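Action item from last week, closing it out:
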Amino acid sequence: MKGVLLKDLYIAKSNILVTAVSLIVLGFGLSFLLETSALLVLAPVTSTTAVFISITSDAGSKWNKNVITMPVSRRQMIGEKYFFYIILAVFGMIAALIPCGILALSGAQITLQSLWLYGSIGMSSTLLAGSMSLPCAYLFDPEKSQIVFMMSFMASTGMIAGLVFLINVFLAVKEHMSMAFDIVLGIAAVSFFISYQAAVKVYQKRDIV
């Protein structure tokens, strides 16, 4: 799977670089209007677009039909996309932390609690969206999968709101904000793992085009 991952990184390297620079510049720009740590909500979402660029590229070049003849299982093929998705989400978080760290050293009021809170929200949204959009990327054609990709992030926002309301029944969210979103993050991580397992089972018997 390492070779497949390196292939995707090579294809998406320009997109990854542009995303990183954009997040860093946006972070400094936001410092004049909002709390810079709020960028952590957006960072992992924007950075994962490279996964769908790689999937589209695979479909256009018929990569999946060729690689299936090599000693690479379908589980590895699907798993690589999920792993690539997580790598890019973490990369986006790191890129967003750069302006936060520089501004904090310059005296800006940025706390670890706010970084963790916004980071939890951003990563939860990203994992929930990925659990919906990644399986569909192989089910639909590239154009439709891009639409699903965009809609999945809107859906994940609604899911997070619903989870927060549900948690609030058992735990006062306003008084335990960090704990509440830690629970949401845990649920999102479990959802992402279940999505991976389901995708593997579905595509073990399905032709990948």
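Closing note: Residues 74-105 form the longest helix (32 residues).
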